[in-house]
Amino acid sequence: CMVPANADPTVDDDAHYMVTFPGPITHDSQEVDSLVGKIKVQQTLYQTNIECCAVSYSDYPADRISQYTPSELYEGGIQKCVSAMKGKLRLQSPCKLGDIDGQEFVVDLPNIKAVMHSRLFLVGNRLFTLMYLGPPDTENSKNALDFLNSFRLLR
Asked: CA 86 to CA 24: how far, in whole Å?
């Protein structure tokens, strides 16, 4: 994910975030099963045959999400991701976005010879997922960190 110095940030006014993708993006949405039942996932994606950068978010029902702590939601999301991608969780640690506590994790994906570096942030009842996917050992590359570190919430 090479983020050129002059790359313009993508602003999603509806979801209240901005992030810098390294090139052209696509949008999609899908329904998935979650800890609280079916939810709709909105995704913005940059993809080449080598790397992928994505931001997705889901709005959880307020009455259902209040039954769980952010830690439980993060843990559930991480375990579901690792299982779905048939990966091996290598690293999981707390991270911050301003005053928001999140979770950061790295998953090795030997079946596709890749690595994923992701961050999760729960803002109210909206869960944001940032994901970099690339060749093995690129999880902390300039490309990965430029993308992950460019994410900002708009208030």
From this structure: 28
